Amino acid sequence: MSLSERETALSVKSAPGNAQATALSPPGKRTEERRTEEKVRALLWRYNSEIIFGGSLEIKFTRNSSSLVSLSQHQGSGTLRLHELFCKAPTELLKDVIRLCFSNIDRAHARMLRSRIHDYIGANRHLAVATMSAPVYRRPQGSIYDLEEILKQVVREHVPERRLKNSRPAIGWSRQVTSKLMGKWIETPPMEKNVILINKLLDDARVPSYYLEFNVYHEILHDLFSISRARGRWIQHSVEFQKREKSFPHYARALEWEATELQKLVAFEHAAS
Ligand SMILES: [Zn+2]
User: Fold this and answer.
1) Which of the listed residues 81, 98, 130 is the one where a domain comes to its end?
2) How far is the CA of 5 from the centre of ligand 1 (A)?
3) FRET partner for 29 with CA separation of 20 to 30 A, picked from 11, 145, 249, 259?
4) HEC assignment per residue over the chain
5) pLDDT of residue 18
6) Domain annotation covers residue 182
7) Which of 77, 103, 130 lies at the terminal end of a domain, its last residue?
8) Ranges under pLDDT 70 in the chain
9) What confidence score (pLDDT) does residue 76 get?
10) Residue 181: which CATH number?
């Protein structure tokens, strides 16, 4: 859905005051993390002359998949949060990270560094995925709709590539009703099933089955067309993805319903809660 995205694990932020990262590292850092920290500190020291950051710095390793690099600063001291995945990064890439976070560089240079970091992340995405915790969701049998049945039907009619039961993602309702995200595709570590989450809001008799089918269809397309990177940007809905999406028989109808009726349902839920 236009409203539904798996925000992949790839944003590289350097935002003051960004404290979203979840530090999962136990109090005693693992050897790998300690080594990476030493490397980062050595690099910081080496580039000291061009580094604009003066105070004390804490380095934390996280599994936060939405912000892989972040630097928060407060009154001269700061916290650099790095995804665990950077423990495996070559020194050259750590240099890029440090330059991006600490040096006074122009936009073009920052863009180039960000792009190199993204390329590394893209190539090692499986490592980030492998450390993510399993998504939590409700069973597919809702009070009105059974997502398992819908998935089966959608696969049977439109996605022959996922005909085999064990090639299909798992599916379930979201635990919470949200007003924006109607569906989400979540990549899981190898050997585990990817997961499609559908907004609990749609388990409602006022929602036509074709709209639900369309959402499930959209998410399963993410399972077929993986995210790619081109000209410095991540592409989630490639040309092929969109072409395939438009081939859904109720495509126009589903979008029309979304544009008119979905908003009413959201407003109604909002008023009720
Ligand atoms: Zn999508």
Assistant:
1) 130
2) 5
3) 11
4) CCCCCCCCCCCECCCCCCCCCCECCCCCCCHHHHHHHHHHHHHHHHCHHHECCCCCEEEEEECCCCCCEEEEEECCEEEEEEEHHHHHCCHHHHHHHHHHHHECCCHHHHHHHHHHHHHHHHHCHHHHHHCCCCCCCECCECCCCEHHHHHHHHHHHHCHHHCCHHHCCEEEECCCCCCCCCEEEECCCCCCCCEEEECHHHCCCCCCHHHHHHHHHHHHHHHHCCCEEECCEEECCCHHHHHHHHCCCCHHHHHHHHHHHHHHHHHHHHHHC
5) 30
6) yes
7) 130
8) 1-29, 48-55, 65-66, 75-76, 128-134, 189-190, 229-234
9) 66
10) 3.30.2010.10
Determine the distance separating the centroid of ligand 1 and the alpha carbon of 193, expressed in angstroms: 18
Q: What is the pLDDT of residues 2-33, one digit of tens each?
A: 333 322 223 444 333 332 333 333 445 688 88
Domain interval for residue 267:
147-272
The enclosing domain of 57 has a CATH number of: 3.30.2010
79 Cα: distance to centroid of ligand 1 (angstroms):
33
Instruction: Say if 2 falls within a structural domain.
Output: no
- 184 alpha carbon – ligand 1 mean position (Å): 7
Å from CA of 6 to ligand 1 middle: 7
Q: Calculate how far, in angstroms, residue 182's C-alpha sits from the geometric centre of ligand 1.
A: 10
Number of domains within the chain: 2
Residue 241 Cα, ligand 1 centroid: separation in angstroms? 9
